[in-house]
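For reference, the entry.
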Amino acid sequence: MTSDNNIPNNIYFLGIGGIGMSGLARFFLERGHRVAGFDRNKSELTSNLEQEGAAIIYEDNIQLFPKDWKPDNCLIVRTPAVKNDNQILRHLTENGYPISKRAEILGLITKNMRCLAVAGTHGKTTTSSILTHLCHQGGHKVYGFLGGLAGNFQSNYVSGEIETVVVEADEYDRSFLHLRPNIAIITNTDSDHLDIYESAENLLKTFGEFAGIAKQNGIVIKRIGLDVQADFTYGLEEKADFHATNIRTENGGYHFELVTPKGERQKMYFPLAGRHNLENAVGAAAAAIMDGVPIDQIAAGMQGFKGVKRRFEKHMENPVLIDDYAHHPTELEALINTIEEMWPKSNYTLIFQPHLYSRTKDFLKEFAATLDKVPHPILLPVYPARELPEHGVDSEEILRLMKNKNARCIQKEELTNWIEETKPQVTVIAGAGDIELLIPQVKNCLTKLNNQKSPYV
């Protein structure tokens, strides 16, 4: 993949530690660019970038910006997570530095590539990770810009050997309209990001625009039932063009037959739990087949898929500890269905951290209704991310709408005490904020309880 496209040698990332930004940074480092950036927090991603040659600062101080980087010799890439009051951003804006969104740069570097794009309000990361893996398994050594750490590559960026790239087509801020895909998958169009779109109708209209752009360049594959134009459908229903049939569960995954529009049938095993994940796998397989990957190679790749970090990631077997990125009512519903399919008689606990005040406000009733289905739902405070607190929008408000007598709102500091008192048999952590940082202490607490031979409930 070439990266010239009039992009200067010096590239500065504001919010370099984000999952999407860090992938772009790795891409440019790989091509010999000088990469620097700012992030609020040091993380495993930023540490890896520093080891690869990126110069990263963690203090909002313009004096730490590279002295020899001027408006005519560098490019600034910004994420919405960096607010307008950031001193570095303010200085760069006032002094005429060229500032671009991540989506604009991704569109620029992929415009001359064969592009396989995965869109949808849920399932993008899992589907794009499966697709990238299936392509590599079939000998198509594609590049990959992924929204999570794919187990088969241990990375969110995959270096390729051919001029083809798999990307997540992010709907936030209409970012995916910068892409020109040759093959597009649309996983769903559920309402989200209403702080940007204002209505579900506007969101659906924008997905329609994306599908129209993709059809101009190639083909669109959508999950069956979506109200967007497409050339092919996929799903678990037999009327879908690409579908799974003869499905049965085994060892936490699924045996099934993949059926193609040409009538081809191929037995496969997919090792991830959750029917929504199986549906994602069928969508990825459809795109891989359309890209020319032989169906027998898809079967081999499907069996060898190692999952994605924070997508139904199992940290303990006994007692069970699961971590998941679910942060939308539909995703929580899929997570709950998966837990109950894997552990049908479990009196499990789900610890949920709502993500964004705007999303919490938009889906208060839906969060309450979904969490009511959980035997023991625990709510942590809202993770604000890029937003300021909003009066009357908090986890307590979700709790007030719930009917489940076991539901609780607690602070992070109270979590281990609660676990020690209740001794859950199956514990699930869910959310898109910083809830994953609690995993070590939760794991340690559960391990101690298990060593004490405590009777789990």
